[in-house]
Fold each of these.
Amino acid sequence: MTGFAQGIRRAPVSGWWLLILIPVLFLGFFFFAPLINILRLSITATAIRTLFTRGYYGRIIWFTVWQAAVSTVLTLIVGFPAAWLFSHYRFRGQQWLKALTTVPFVMPTVVVAAAFRALLGANGLLNAWLMWLTGSDVPLIRLEQSIVIILLAHVFYNVTVVVRLVGGFWGNLNPRVMEAAQTLGASPWRTFREVTLPLLRPSLVSASILIYLFTFTSFGVILILGGPTFSTLETEIYRQYVTFLQPDIAAVLALLQIVFTFGLMSLYARWQRKTAVSLDFRPHQTNLQPVKTWRQRIILLIISSYLILFLVLPLLALVWRSLVDREGNLTLAYYTALPVLRRGSIIFVPPLTAVRNSIGYALLTVFSAGMLGVITASFLARPSRWRDWLEPLFMLPLGVSAVTLGFGYVITLNQLRTSPWLVLIAHTLVAFPFVVRTLLPVLQSIKPSLREAAAVMGASPWQVWREIDLPIIGRALLVGSVFAFTVSMGEFGATSFIVRPNSGFLTVPIAIERYLSQPGALNFGQAMAMSTILMLVTAVGFMAIERFRYADIGEF
Amino acid sequence: MLRLENITKSFDNQSVLRGVSLDVTMGEVVVLLGPSGCGKTTLLRIIAGLDQADNGRLLLQGEDLTRIPVHQRGFGMVFQEYALFPHRNVFENVAFGLRMAGWERPQIVERVQQVLALVGLAGYDQRSVHELSGGEQQRVALARSLAPAPRLILLDEPLGALDRALRERLMLELRDILKRAGGVMGRPEGITAVYVTHDQAEAFAIADQIIVMNQGQIEQQADPVTLYRQPATPFVARFLGMENLLPGEVKSTAPCIIHTEIGELHIETAESLTIGQPITLLIRPEAAQPISPNTPAPNQITAHLTSHSFRGRYQIATFTLAPPHTPITLKFEFDSSVNLRNTQTPFHLSLNPNQLIPLERG
C-alpha cells in the first residue's frame, strides 16, 4: 500500500512558475530600489533638522492635513443625499445618473483642474456670464488660486466614493430593521439617528478614510488650481526637487508622505473588512422603490439637479471654453492649431506630438502592464507557499503616491531620464496593480476542478492555462487593458518629475499643465482643447470598462 | 377591536388586496393563512402602517387609524427574519420601544427583565445579538415587540426561518407566551395578535381564529375546528390538504343524495341545498372504510390500490376507481390497523356520509 501511496505524488513541477520572477524583478528594480533610495537620501541630519526647525514645513503639513479633512467632510455632505437616493429609489435614468457620478472620479487630475479653471477661473464660463450680465469688465469671481476652488475640485472628484460605498452599503441594509424601529415608536428622524446612522458607520468611515487618502495625496489639482500660494506635502516634494534643487528635503517629505499613506491604507483595509462582513445582507435590487408621491418627486428633482449641475457643469465649461475665443465666437482654432509649433511656445514640440506620445505610451503600457499582470495574477490565483506574502507585496505600489514614485525614479535612474523608457516604466508600475486587481477575482472564481479535469484529459500546465484560464479571463483582461490605457493617458504625478520641460517625449497632461501655467488666450484655449480630448478618451475608456466588467468586482 | 373595511392595495398595477374586510376580537390570536403571494403579508404591513392601503379604512376600537403613521400606532411587530438591531445587545434591543415611549430607566430595566423571563431568556441581557441561535433571536424579537405591552402585536412568519424541529416546539410555546403576556404586563384583557403564516400546522397550533386568504381575498374566517370540519370553499379544502374534490349535483334533499362521476352518494349535512344545485363534493381523507363484498354499507365503491405509504400511526393510500368509471384518483388515510397489503383484487370501500361535505362550485 505504501508503494501505491508514493506512486500518486504530484506530477513533476514544470518551470512555468519561474515566470513570476519577471514581475518580482520589475518590482524590485523599479519600485523598491527607488523607495530605498529615498530612504537613504532622507536620513541625513541636516535634512531632518531643517524639516523640524523651520515652521514653513510645519505649516505645509498642517495645510495638507486640514484641507484633506475639510474636503472629506464636504464630500460626505454633498454625497450623502445622493447615496440615499440611489440606495432607495428606482427612477428613469437612474443608472445613467449613477454612472455620471463616476465620471469625475476617473478623470485625470489635469482635466479636473482645467475644468474648474474653465468654469470658475478668471476667464472661465461663470465670469464670462457675469461680466456679460453686469457689463463689468473685470472678473467678478476671483476663486483662482483660492482654497475654495481646491475644495470644490476635491468634492467634485470624490463624490462618487460616497455614492458607491455608502450608497451600496445602505442599499444592502435590511429595511425591516428600520421598520422594526418605527413599529416600536421611533419617528423617522429618530430611526435615522438611532438605527440607520450607526449601521451606516462602517461605510461612512471607510469612505472618509478613502477620500482623506485621495485628497491628502492630491497633486495635480493643488499644483494647477492652487498656484504657488498653496503647498501640500505632494506639491512641496515636487517644488523642493524641481525648483529649489534640494533632493534631501524632498526625500524627507516623501518619507513622511509614505508613512502617512501606508497608515491610512492599512486603516482602510481594516475598516473595509468590517464593511464586507456586515450583518444581514439582502440582494440589492429588491429594496428599491419607485418614486410615487409628489414629495418624493420634488426631492428626486432637487438631488438629481444639483448632482447634474455640480458634476456636469465643469466638464461642459471645459468643452465650451475649448470652442470659443475671447470675444465669445465659436471657433475650432484651438484644435486646428494643435499640429503647429508656435513661436515662443512653452513646450518645444507641437501639441499634437504630445497627443501622439501619450497614445504611444498608453499602448505600450497596456502591453507591458497586461503581460506582468497576467503572469502575476495567474501565479497569485493558485495556492502556493509564496502567495501569502507575495500578494500584499504586489499591491504596495497602490499605496505610494505617483509623485513619490516619480521622485524616486529621478534620483535613482537619472541616466534614463532623457529616454522615453522611464515614462513607460512609471506608467507600467502605476497601471500594473490595477490589472492584477481586475484579473485576480475572476481567476480565483475558476473552479479548480475545471483545471483538474483538463489535466486529467492530458493538458500540460501551459495548455491548461491557454485552454481554461485565458478564455475565461478574456473579458477581465480587456477591462484591465482599458484601465491601463486610461491610467497611462492621465498619469501626471510621476511623469511631471521624469519628463524634462524641453523634452520631445512629453505627454498630454504635462503639456496641459505647462499651457495652464502661462498667460495668453491661445495657451488657455489649447489647454482646454487638449483637456477635452483627454476627457473624451477617458470617458470612452470607462464606458467600455463599465460595459465589459462582470459585477462590481474591485470597486475601489 | 380591530376592524378592516374593504382594504384594497395594488403594486405596479397588480392587485394584491381586493377588498378585504375583517374583525379581530380583543385578546384573540388571529392567523392569516394562505399560500405565498396571497396578500397576507401586505395586509399585515397595512395594519402596522408600514404600507398604505389604496382604499378602505382601518379602525381600532372605533378610532380611525388609516392616516396615523407607523410610529404613533403603538403596535408591536415581529418580522420574518426578526430584524434585530445588529448594533445593540439584547437588553438594548428589548428596551428600544420603552425608550421611545419615554420610560424612566428603572422601569425600563424592570420591564426588560420581566419580558426576558417571559420568553425564557432571563440573564441574556448583555449578549450580543450575533451570538444568539435562531430560536433565541426569535425570542428576543418577540420580547422586543411585547415589552411596551402593545394593544396589538403583529407577527410575520415569525417561525419561518427556523428548522422544523425547533418550529414544532416554539409553536406551542409562542401561543403560551402570547396568552400569558397580557397578565404579566398589566393588560388583563390579554394581548391581541395577528399572525401571518403559510403553514397550516402552525396556524392550527396557534390560532383562536384562522382567516384563509387567496389572491387578495378572504376565503374563510373560522376557528380551527370549524375550519377543518367545514372548509367553506374548494380552495380552503385543497389548502388544508384535502384533495378528493368532485363536481356534483344535488339530486334529492331528504335524504340528501349527490350525483357525481363515481355514482350517487348519500351525504349527511346541515346545509340547506336545493335540488339541481351544482356543488363540489369534498370526500374527506378519513371517509373510506374497507368492507368485504356484499355487506350492507352506504356509498360503496370498488377501486384499485395504486400506491400505499405506511406512516406509523396512520397510512395513506391512493386508489383508482375500477371500470366502468372514468379513471379518478382518490386519496385516503386509514388507521394503521387496517390491512391494505392485498393489491390484486379491487378493494371494496364504503364512504361515510358524515365525511362527505358539499362545497360551493369553485
Amino acid sequence: MSESRDKNIERIIRLMQTDDSADAPSEAVKWSKNIFRTRQKQPSALQKIKAVLKLDIAPGQAVFGERSGAAEARQMLFEAGEFGIDLRVSASEHGFEVRGQVLGEGFENREAILGQHATQTNDLGEFVFEAVEAGTYAFSVGNGEEEIVIEGIEIS
Amino acid sequence: MKPASEQTDDRFSPRALERDDAALLKACRKGDETAWDDLVDRYQRLVFAIPRRAGLPESEAADILQEVFLTLFQKLDEIEQPEKVRSWLVTTAKFKTWGVVRSEKGLRAPATEEEMEHEMASLEDENPLIEDALVTMEQQHLVRTALKKLEERCQQILSMIYLTEPSASYAEVADAIGVGATSISPLRARCLKKLEKILAG
C-alpha cells in the first residue's frame, strides 16, 4: 500500500473517531419527513409502461439458443409494450453489476434509474449500474413521453 | 471564500455518493415519498450538527433542521445541480444558523449569502462555523454515508472499532461476528479499503 493511501486510510479512521455528531431529535426528523406528504401529486402526461418478465435465466444455466457455454450473469428479459429490456446481473467486488439495454428506439442517452442509482443510457440504449447492493429495486427509464418501469427486481 | 462543500478535496471525490443524492432528489421531484424519507435520513445528522456546532441549543437546532428541509421541499424543482444537494443543504443550514446567532446578538439577519460570508470571514477567530470545521463535518458525513454502503459485517467491524467509546477490542468484535480473533485485523483492513474505494467515487 502506498504512503498516500496509508495516509488516506488514517484520515478516514480519524474522521470516524472524531465524529461526535448526533442524530437530530426524532420528532424534528419525523416533521421534516411529513412535509412531503403535503405535496400535491401533479397529473402527468407521461405514459407509464409497466414491464413484464418474460425470461429469467439463473447464472450457470445454458442460454437458450446458445450452443455452448453457460451464462455467468443472471439474465432477464422484460417486455414493455413495443419495447424490451434486457437485464444482466452479475456479482462484482462491491455487490452487483447490473447491465442492460433498452430494446427499441427512443431511449438512447436518457437517464435510467435503479432504486437510488442513476446512470445514462448510451447511443445504443445500453446502461450499467455498478456497486449495487442486494435488495429489491424498481427500474425506470424515460424519454419525456414514455417511461418504462420494472418493479420488484430482486438482486441477490 | 468558497463554501466548504465546494472546496476541492484531493482525497475524497465521492461521485458515486453524489449520483445517489441526485437520484434521490430526482425521485423526490417525481413524488417518491420513500426517496424524500431517505434524503432526510441521510442528511438530518449533518444539517443538525451545523447549528449545534455554532453553540445553539438542541431545540433551536431542531427548528433550523425543520426550516432547512422545508426550504428544500419548497425549492425541490429549482435546484439546478441535484448532485450538489449536499452543498445546498450545508449552505442553507449555515445561512439559517448565522441568522439565528446574529438575531440573538440583537442584529438583523444577513440579507444575502454574500453578506453572511463577509461577516463570518471578518469574525473568523471566534466563528464556530469556520470553513475548516464545516469541511470536517461534511467529510464525516461522507464517511458515515459510505459506511452504510458496506456489507453488514464490515459496518459492524468498523463501527465497533472506531465509532464506539470505548473502542471494542478485537476479541469483542470477533465474538460479535462469530470469527476467530486473528481474523479481525485482516478483515478490518479489507473493510477500510472498501470504504476508501467508495469515498474515491
